[in-house]
Design a protein that fits this description.
The complex is a heterotrimer of chains A (238), B (443) and C (139).
Chain A (H helix, E strand, L loop, with lengths): L5 H9 L21 H10 L5 H10 L3 H4 L18 H12 L11 H8 L3 H13 L13 H12 L11 H4 L17 H12 L10 H6 L4 H12 L5
Helix pairs in contact in A: 3-7, 5-6, 5-7, 8-12, 10-12
Chain B lengths: L2 H7 L5 H8 L1 H7 L15 E5 L3 H13 L4 E6 L4 E2 L4 H5 L9 E2 L2 H6 L3 E4 L2 E5 L4 E4 L4 E3 L2 E4 L3 E4 L8 H6 L9 H11 L6 E5 L10 H16 L4 E5 L8 H12 L8 E4 L7 E5 L4 E4 L3 E3 L2 E4 L2 E4 L1 H5 L24 E3 L13 H19 L8 E11 L2 E12 L2 E4 L5 E2 L7 H22 L1
Parallel strand pairs in B: 1-2, 1-9, 2-5, 9-19, 11-12, 11-17, 12-13
Antiparallel strand pairs in B: 3-4, 6-7, 7-8, 10-18, 14-15, 15-16, 20-21, 21-22, 21-23
Helix pairs in contact in B: 2-3, 4-12, 4-13, 9-10
Chain C lengths: L14 H5 L2 H7 L7 H9 L2 H4 L18 H12 L8 H5 L4 H13 L10 H14 L5
Chain lengths: 238, 443, 139
Amino acid sequence: MKKTSIHSAISACVLVPALALAGGHGDKLKAEAWTHQSLNQTLNEMPKGNVERGQTVHTQMMCASCHGENGQSPSRNFSSLNGQTPEYTMKMMLDYRDARRWEDYGQANIMVKLAQAMSDQEIADVAAFYADQSLSDWEIQQNLSDERFKMADKLVRKGDASRLLVPCSSCHGVNGQGNGITPALAGQVPEYFQRTMQAYKDGERHNDVSQGMSQLAKPLTDAEIEALAQYYANLEGS
Amino acid sequence: MSRLEQQTFDRKITRRDLVKLFGASAVAATGIFGASNKAFAQSAAHVVILGGGVGGSTFAKYLRFADPDVKITIIEQYPEYITCLRSNDVLVGMHTLDELTFNLDTIRSKYNVNVIIDRVVGADFDQKTVRTQKGEVVSYDKLVVSPGIDFVYDNIEGFNEQVADTTHPHAYKAGPQTLKLKQQLENLPQGGTAIIAPPQNPFRCPPGPYERISFFAEYLKKHNPTGKVIVLDPKDRFTKDVPFKKAWERLYGYKTDNSLIEWVSGSDGGQVTRLDPKTNQVQAVVEDFQADLINIIPNQRAGKLAQNLDLTDESGWCPINRHTFESMRHDEVYVLGDSTIADAMPKSGYSANSQAKVCAKAVADTLKGESPGRAIYSNVCYSLAGQNYGVSIAAIYEVRDGLIQPKGDSAGVSEITDKPAQPILEAVYQKNWHREFVKDVFY
Amino acid sequence: MTNNTLRLSGLCLSLSLFAGTPAQAQDDAKSSSITAKLGEAMAQQCAPCHGTNGQAMTEAMPPLAGLPVETFERAMLAYRDGSRDAVIMDRVARGFTDEEIHAMAIWFEKQPYKAWQNTELEEAYKASEAAKNAMGGQQ
């Protein structure tokens, strides 16, 4: 691929002073919430990603310094990206760039800044690169008690009709492999998973289409979220 | 601060904590937050810290880690402390002074430290006592002094403390002068000239003047694109000059005809010799300059308290034992931070924090009759060359051949790469670092 | 795939788990010149970025508290030899020997994985004691 021009990248981030305030979360850009239609259209209009170019973007944007060599996170505060669906990665990057994802707990600032320095083509390429890396379980094995495993497994496979909870697997796949804009969860960093679910539950994260995930997260107990985090961390996605 | 943090941030030490540490009877005698002398066993040694800034506060916290029983007192002149750290941010509205203001409440309660707000006016090193303005005499077993810096004006004719306080703020100690300089930048006429004159080595926060130059340029680029920053420097090199100048090229047209920054080195006659505050003229070795804003950052020496307590040598700074930071001039007295002669370690908040931890362990060991362990220090200075453009310098240090020197192959500044993410990440790291750093110092 | 037991935040560390049998302790102390005390002293130098006792979770810097020894070591060695991309950790890692990294790793593994603000001083003392035991009980 063409080398990313540092000048264009830097001027891109200098041109958005409104986002650069020290607190980070004071002046948010206002982006319209996605509808299924607007999201589909936007993703359809994205350029076609290329794995090889994506690897260069991965290097140039120093993604590995937080997300690991092939997208498998080496740490508990960053998400794993390997084996993620390209649609989901693209959506996340666009959400960061347009400030749909700017949670209030001080974790999104870094990705907002990086996404604003990237072109649509680079976003599509890096998404293709991560999709090309295979899913893997989280490196620290989770010791899940039988009781906790059953709690999670029921939510994943059967759901809970009494609380209008559809099974997780109906969107995320039986092996947590994801599908389209629904992310893969297999092997996800459990601390990240918990934090994300908590953010949906508390209304701090709101980039989901039609508040789908937020509504499903609200009835879940802390114990269920923790069990699900460990359950998915142990899956390999196949 | 996020909601999650807020919930946990203000937790006070509980009665249970104190009972564990000092036994039920001691707590009963004093109440929980009194932290008076009675809370400690009579036999416990008393360590008195002069100065509740970065060095003093870190020292108190980490001495408590090293010794649950020792009696600790901080004597600090002001009830609140504004960090010099990140005060450049205030100039361009990235932080408020309030956000940089801290007190010792958590240090007092969580670590059971006695805090006296008073000014120290003298010490008797034979009797091992210090005297305060309000007339208190406090005796110590070990005295730790963390006095910061003092300014020296006499190498620039026409410049003095009174001029700095009124018309020409140096703004190199965070406070009212910072706000005045911010206003002067905002009032700079279109197409106007600002002069920044950095000091001679050694001085507090070596990248500070150059970060300020960058912020001025970024401000002009946005609000006053025909304005200009002229840097009159007595030196030919400065810390992180390679990545700073690369950033200036990338962001502010440095080295082009339209550069927002013109840097005059010492060799080119950059040393300022005279200021005329009335006409806003400065005389440098090379020529005279007329400007709309003149920001001279004075030369520096150890803080007044260190001078008054005879802890400085002819250099104006405090000589210390490199392994423990014990003063070379008086026994049982330790000096921390900017005022010390720490060789390769820069005068930074990070250095003061690092030295305070090593010193706290050394003091605790000495009080137990053990010999202090090996001293390993560290420093990281992140600076911003623009709001989204960070540059850094980092090193681990050890004592070698009698000097504090970089350990292994650790010393280095930000590499110049073609990776667009690098300066962005460094800028975010800087913000994260600052958030955690003040917690490590004051919480 | 490592075979570590998960230590979740909020779960107080089971200290007896880490006190270590004498045999383990011997095994852990690779070098007699690198003491537990030095391990702690070096690890405390990391706090300005990683939080007091490595207990901060920021967007840019990962927490080190409760990190399995081999995870910490692997990361530091990769930073040091340049095989892991870094903003600043490559420079920092080049300041430490294998033995020093190991001593820090042991100390961090014993720290409670939760925010320092939620940690009692007493827990910090216990963690420090546990690290000392893991280094063979030497000072």
